[in-house]
Amino acid sequence: MSDSDPTGRKAVAAVWRIDSARIIGALTRYTGDFALAEDLAQEALAEALVTWPREGVPNNPAGWLLTVGRRRAIDAFRRRSTRDEKYAALAHHLTEGGALTGAEPGPAPDDVLWDPDQIDDDTLKLIFTSCHPVLSREAGVALTLRVIGGLTSDEIARVFLVPTATVQARITRAKKTLGAAGVPFEVPPVSERPARLAQVLSVIYLIFTEGSSASSGDEVMRLDLAGEAQRLARILSRLMPEEPEVHSLLALLELTAARFPARRGPDGETVLLEDQDRRRWDRSAIARGRAALAKAADAGRGYGYYGLQAAIAECHALAPSVEETNWARIVLLYEGLGRLAPSPVVELNRAVAVSMAQGPEVALPIVDSLAGGDAFKDSHQLPGVRGELLRRLGRVDEARAALEEAVRLCGNERERAVLTRKLADL
Questions:
Q1: Residues 6+ apart with CB under 8 A from 207
Q2: Mean pLDDT, the chain, integer
Q3: Residue 337, φ and ψ in degrees, nearest 5
Q4: pLDDT per residue over 184-202, tens digit each?
Q5: 3-state secondary structure at position 217
């Protein structure tokens, strides 16, 4: 393999995308220092970018990265002239433990019977660490999306609808705060979990959202991210079985993922809801989602933020076609969601539902009311919806202008292709 051969670099990117969170989690467990662990993982990544294209991809790429990270950790402690128990334990593990065998970092079986006080999942520990009360919600979520989700600062900025510089500052401050506070790398005791739950749920939800609709790149979805979010939600439902919103989030993820097989065409192109072959939807995932939603309902507290969204997803899952979907119920559910957690994104989704239930002429004023704010300033979502409504109303010139704006702003190549086809059809 030559130095210029891109195979090794592609392998590095693929392994990092899939296993970076577990590698960083394992290194955090060994070093007890979150910021140091991320630096060590980045150093291992840099070494892989040089070594793999030249020498070939190792048999166990994730284990290779973890081994290099552990060795760099020992070097770091040596440079600090630290020969305490931590250094000895690290060296012992490296020479006699699994590192030299290239063992995969961190256990991650999805069917383990979990002891609620002995959760041994490094990724979940990372999330709980990043959601510590010493951090603001925005900083904790941004940090976790970077480390767990592997999102860039630009992608996280699009999630929060804020400038990239703001996201970068939040992540930097979060790392320093965690280090200064000496936050332990652990799933907190049962008594401390409710205080972090809302933020943990938010992180898992946002990871899944990026996985189900990639904000950039040339793929419709990032199934690795979506699958990891589902895995974490399942673990969390075992960890906190009395919390209805945990079951609601799991229901939302299962019901949404059920449509994945029909959302991508043979050539990787996006297939819109109205064009999907519903026979390809995963009926077992729908059954799991509905069962989780029933558990949430059994708590008797009414649906919360994730429960309302899961109920919307259930409406889609049960409908035989777009035309036969219970759009009136979806509108009511979005109205409830808007009262519970008002946001421009919820209002835009409500407008889409209103257009299906009552017509585009009723929905367009809702969309136009959102156009004056900054929330969708750099997003293709609002002009995309507006262009579709204008098209349905026969206002072709205005529709063309809106869709051209959506194409310009869209960061995902597959979604941009859909918008471009709509534009061409005009």
A1: 144, 145, 148, 149, 225, 226, 228, 229, 232
A2: 81
A3: -65, -40
A4: 766 677 777 788 888 889 8
A5: strand
